[in-house]
Each structure stands twice: as C-alpha cells, then as structure tokens.
Amino acid sequence: MTFLNVQDIHHTYFTKSNAVTALSNISLQVEEGEFISFLGPSGCGKTTLLSIIAGLFQPTEGRVELEGKQVATLKSEIGYMLQQDYLFPWKTIEENILLGLKINHHLDEEKKAYAKDLLLQMGLSDVESLYPKQLSGGMRQRVALVRTLATEPKLLMLDEPFSALDYQTKLHLENLVSDTLKSFGKTAILVTHDIGEAIAMSDRIYLFSPSPGKVHKVFEVPEELRECSPFDTRNHPLNAEIFQTIWKEMESLGSQESHKSTP
Amino acid sequence: MDHKSHTKALHNAYIRSLKKEKYWVRFYQLVIFLIFFAGWEIASKNQWIDPLIFSSPSKVWELFLIKVQDGTLFYDLGFTLSETILGFILGTLLGTILAAILWWSPFLSKILDPYLVILNSMPKVALGPILIVALGPSFTSIVAMGTIISVIITTIVVYTSFREVDPNYIKVLQTFGGTRFQIFKEAILPSSFPVIISTLKVNVGLSWVGVIVGEFLVASKGLGYMIIYGFQVFNFTLVMLSLLVIAVLATIMYQAVEFLEKKLIKNN
Ligand SMILES: Nc1ncnc2c1ncn2[C@@H]1O[C@H](COP(=O)(O)OP(=O)(O)OP(=O)(O)O)[C@@H](O)[C@H]1O
Ligand SMILES: [Mg+2]
After folding, report:
1. Neighboring chain B residues of A154 at a CB cutoff of 8 Å
2. Cβ(B50)–Cβ(B43) under 8 Å?
3. Cα atoms in the 13 Å half-sphere on the side-chain side of B223
4. In sequence order, what DSSP letters do the residues of A72-99 get, joined into one string?
5. From CA B267, how far away is CA A44, in angstroms rounded?
6. Tell me: the pLDDT tens digits for A191-205?
7. Domain ABC transporter, which positions (chain A) (predicted)?
8. β-pair partners for A30
C-alpha cells in the first residue's frame, strides 16, 4: 500500500468576485521514508496542495489518504510547517515547542524531554525561557521545526522553510533538517522555489506549472546524489547536469506563460 | 579600553539627564497642584469666587475630617466603590463573553451586527429610569447602570480584535488538530489581551459615569447621592468633597488596571 496517496485533486477558491482554480488534476504517490520536493513558480498552488494534504480543508474534488485513511480524520499524524515560523509571540520558546503536544493532549514528561532534546539537536540551548522576538530569524525557523517535529508526525511538510534565511544559515539548516529526518526515517514534502535546494534535499522533484496548478514533470534525483548530504550534493559534478535539465523545463514554463499572455 | 570608558561616561550622562527631566516633570506637576489649591483657597477667602458655591479647600478638608471620624464617608464610599467595581468587572466580562459568542458563530454576528450598532449609538444613561422600574431602586439597578454603559462598546471593540487575529496562528493550531475552543484559548484570546486591557482603561471611566448617574436617580447613600444631596441643601462643600474622593478613587482604579497590564502582557 502506498504511504501517501493523492488522487485526482482539483481545487477552486471561490470568492465573491471570482473563482480561482488553484489546482487541477493532481495525482501523486509517496512511499514511506521518501523525501519529495514541490518546485514551481509563485502562485502555482503549492501551499494550497500542502493545506489539502494536511487536511486543513477539503479539495473541491479528489481525495488524500495516508496509509489508506482519509487525512481529515488524522490530523496529528501530519506535521505541517507554514511558510513563516508563526511562533506565538506571547508564549516562551518552551511553551511554543510544546504547543502541538498540548493541543492533542499528548503532553507528558517523556514527550517534553524529547522536545527539549530536539531543541538541543538543532543547536539551540538556553532559549526555553526566551520569547520568540528575542531570537534571530534562523533560530525561530528552527524552533518552528522543533514544534512541528515534537508531535512525532508520520509525514512532515515544510513550506519554503529556508527562503527567508541568509545563504549560510540556509545551507546549515538544510544539512541539519536532512540529517534529522534521515535519522528518524521520516517521510517529508518540501516546497521550494530553489532548484538547487530541491536537488540537494530530495529523492524526487515534482515541477508544477501555474494557472491552473498541475504537475508539469517529475524528476528522479540520481541515487548517488541522494546518498550525499545537501551540502555535498550542491558541489557534486552530477548536480550541474540535473540542475540544467530542470532549469530548462522551468524556462519553457516561463516562455509558455509569456506566449499565453501575448495576444 | 578608553573607548569603552567613554561610552560608559556618555551612558551615565544620559541616565542623569533622564533623571533630571523626571525631576522637573514632578516639580511642575506639584506646582500646578499647589497653585490650584492655593488659588482656590485664596479666591474663596477673598470672595473673588462665591464661597457658597465653590467652597474652599480648608472647608472641604474640615468636612473630610468630620466625615472620616464619624465613619459616614467610608460608608458612602464603600457603597459607591463596590457598585463601580462590580459594574466595571461585569461590563468588561460580559462584553468579552458576548464578543466570544459572536466570534464563535459568524452567522449570529452577521445577524446581530445592526442591533449592536443601534445599541452602541444609544445614550445608555437614558435607560436609567427603565432599569430602576425593572430592577427596583436599589444596588442592583445602579450596578446595572455601571455595566450597561460599557458592555456594548466592549463587545464591539473586543470582537473586532478577535477577528483581526492573524489566521495563520489558527492554521498552526489546526495542523495539530486544535478544536475551535483550543483555537480561542491559545490564539484568539491571548493575542487580544492588549485590546482587552485598553478597553478596561476606558471602562474604568465609563462605569463611574454609569454609577454616579444611577445614584443621582435613586440612591439614598453613596458618593453620587452625596453630590445630589449637597446640591439640594446647597452644601457645596459636600459636593466638592465627593468630587475629590471620586477623582482619587478613579485614579487608583486606573493605576490598578495598569498594574494588571504589566502582569498580563509579559512579552513587551
Ligand atoms: N484563500 C484564498 N482565496 C482565494 N484564492 C486563493 C486563496 N489562497 C490562494 N489563492 C490563489 O490560489 C493560487 C495558488 O496559491 P498558493 O498560495 O497555493 O500558491 P503557492 O504556489 O504556494 O505560491 P507561493 O510560491 O507564492 O507561496 C493563487 O493564484 C492564489 O491567488
Ligand atoms: Mg506558498
């Protein structure tokens, strides 16, 4: 049985003035332990798709199943880190990372210790009693990740977790996240604009095309690159090749777009 | 090293200038206070103002001592203060609860919207006579006045703040499977604390208005009654005493709210 099964998803947003079809005919399967990336230009429906997979709202058509069960029924098994950290400013870091456990009533001493240990693994010590605004952007992002991981979700979804960070922090966190997820054998979906990041982090890349959002092409990352850490992948000779391939596809998407818009 | 000590010296100078400014602010505040009371006293003594109407600080002070000794001041004061505090707490609490109900049911809030606008624009003290007839000329109807004057505006302001909470905080809680109650408790309410506190500050003043008007209408005791009674028997020393006591009490209540604000909103 496939771990995550996304079947024939269509989604249209209805507002007073218009109806925007954000996703059309999306089907994909993810096996347990895989790391997947969604790549695509802004507005092609990546966040919408993650929200649907997370069970935050029902798609207008289609279904999403995790281990054969409808996702709407099993929220706490899916961890979803939003496009920004959204730490609660009135809660301390400790209260923030324990929020998920508190909400789904799994907060006990053992889980608490686990969450604090994650914080240490992310290189954050002595921050428990601080408030979010006392931390830097990169630190907050890591805290948000700990908050998501603390509930031990089976599926982890990250919406552009590194896009607001400086390049050095970004490289550092890529390695950290990749290591952490590998060590837990977690299944993950990463949304990104950055081709290099998609190659560095994932086993498979879905390239989306906009209006309406659909899967344009799927790229398998070669076995040799998957074994490497994100940082090493970026410097691997094979990287340039696959980067070129994806880049060309994205370019062709762009030119299709401009063809469409010229009358 | 030299640079460091230079910075330190500058910092000290800065702190000194702050202290100095604070000192002058306090000084002028005291000057205004003294000029006001001294001027009042002198003007009254020399008959520049009618001492029968404006009384004088020394007469007010004498009356104050008499009423402290025979205990009648504390009797009236306690009565009015408990009405005001009760009206203030009820108004804020009911307003917040109403706001929570409106947030809970957007459909209901759409239905009630025009009624809230009407109730808000209506002068609440005009309801006084109806309240007195309905609840009796008693403690209850005065507290009701203190409540009703602040409850609708609290509802509107707090509800608006509930709705303006960044939906992404709600989304975070939903990803953890949070229920609507948990969303309210963890995101909606705490992020509205600053707004609730600022309505508290406004409500301090409003409840005093409601209660004093209520006492004008019915009471046979309390500070509002002291004012009305003093007015009827042309004892303006009594009126002035009552006004000064109200000013002091309202200020203390306001300070208490500010203290609460510091306790409640830790992260600023
Ligand atoms: N709540 C909403 N109501 C109406 N339209 C929406 C809503 N959310 C998104 N859309 C529209 O759906 C489309 C897809 O949006 P989405 O946020 O999923 O894109 P995205 O791929 O995540 O973009 P980005 O890379 O900029 O984050 C866009 O055209 C957007 O305008
Ligand atoms: Mg997005």
Report:
1. none
2. no
3. 26
4. GG-GGGEEEE-SS----TTS-HHHHHTH
5. 38
6. 998 888 888 888 899
7. 4-235
8. A4
Min Cα separation A161/chain B (Å)? 14
Ligand at minimal distance from the CA of A11 is 1
Angle between helices B223-232 and B72-104 (to 10 degrees): 120
- At A23 the three-state DSSP class reads strand
Residues paired with A25 in a beta bridge:
none
* Residue in B171, B178, B265 closest to A103 by CB: B178
The torsion angles phi and psi of A217, rounded to 5 degrees, stand at -160, 155
A162 contacts A173 by C-beta, under 8 angstroms: yes
Give the β-pairing of A61-66 and A35-39: unpaired
| Least confidently predicted of A12-26, A63-77, B21-35, B154-168 | A63-77
Mean pLDDT of chain B: 90
On whether the CB atoms of residues B101 and B108 are closer than 8 A, the answer is: yes
Cβ-based neighbours of B34, under 8 Å, separated by 6 or more: none
**Residue A64 CB-half CA count within 13 A:** 25
In the DSSP assignment, the letter for residue A156 is E
Ligand 2 center to residue A43 CA distance, Å? 7
- How confident is the model at residue B114, as a pLDDT? 93
Q: What is the spatial distance between Cα A162 and Cα B147, in angstroms, rounded to a whole number?
A: 51
- The span from the CA of B124 to the CA of B128, in Å, is 8
